[in-house]
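Consortium newsletter contribution from the modelling node. Members have asked for a concrete example of what our holo predictions look like. Here is one, prepared for the manganese (II) ion complex that several groups have been discussing at recent meetings.
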Amino acid sequence: MNQFQPIDQQLSRANPTAYGSEMAQLYQRHIADKIARFQSILEATGYQEILIGSGETKMQFQDDMAYSFKANPYFREWVPLATRAGCYLQITAAASKPRLFLLTVEDIWHTAPETLPPGFEQAFEIVEYATVDQVKKFLGTATAFINETNELEALAEHWNPQAVIHQIDYQRRGKTPYEQECVREANRRAAPAHRAAQQAFVAGASEVQIAAAYLAACDCRESEMPYGIIAGVNEHAAVLHHHNLFKQPQTPRSFLIDAGVEVYGYASDITRTYAYDAGSDFAAMIELMDKKQLELCAQGGIGKSPVDIHVLSQHKIAEILIEFDVLKISAEEAVANDIAGAFYPHGLGHHLGCNVHDKGGQLANAQGDILPPPEKYPKLRSGAPMVANQIHTVEPGVYFIPAFLEKLKAGEHANSVNWSRVDEFVPYGGIRIEDNIVVHADNSLENLTRAAFAGSQ
Ligand SMILES: [Mn+2]
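And here is the predicted structure:
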């Protein structure tokens, strides 16, 4: 694939025009679906209209440099203009087409702002404006205004009203076919970049060089990543959010990369782990983790509890540790006494969409009541039963984290662990494998990530 094509041609790979028009059609249906969902939000909350701002460019303190801009997720779920500041979208009870306000000022310093992909503009009545006073003239009387800043001077109670925010988060759990395709494409574009990163690791590159290889392969700037690239070589694979990438190359043993791609404001979120020596115990442990991860992926379904599947994943991690002679107890004991948790200190997964950690995973209802995580697993991001068309990540991990191991060694369960085996695995850091799964309305499961890797071979 030619890496140096604009995004719409890249999206189109095999047949650019056909893919582009297919996406435009999916988008029209997406907007029709969102209008219907927002009509019921207006009814439920008593507002006449909702106005969503994309946000403002932020300047660095005492400097004339701006931070890279990213439109907020409430705007991005409607409009794929992730890098365009100063836009507003107006959804009213009366109008069939939402009104999209685009800030249009003469500017010789910057290249022209991002525009909508071909065919997408039909979804809106587009109004170009230069000052917010012009936007204000279009506003009705009962407006909920959603934006980080309140330049339209909405009354405090109507600026980001929680009742509306909860409703939006709740409806967003089920993804439209267009949203699913965005995340699917974000997986397709990430798979070859993951391979490029793996090759750079095997060649002995530094973490910074590996990240550069990833960016080059998906033809993105770092500011376009849905989240900072995590690229941990050797012991760094045990640092769950290792963003502070090292410039010094290391003698390669193990490599964990957690990185996605963003397509039209939607993210993929993918983790892979590699061993340099294919004959090592660590390589065998990755292979077993891969098998267990696929078993966990198969557990999803409408009405299923992510908490139950997380508890199951704790058992599977314990089984891996037993298999490799790290634990000397049963899986049941390892989970009951939270010994497995010392090697696997995070949740199994989260909702995925235009937020990498999409909101709504803990919502019991549209009124914003929360289903709190169980006391034993306070870090779980999703407790609510799965719904149709939800996209979930499945990302079990096993790590040798010195701080946790020291606590375990000093505690009452120290004898449950074979410490010489632990010492052998510490230099490899850890393993995480993460896929993105759609729970379809017919209750079938689609693994977007495995399909993307299979398709990019
Ligand atoms: Mn994730």
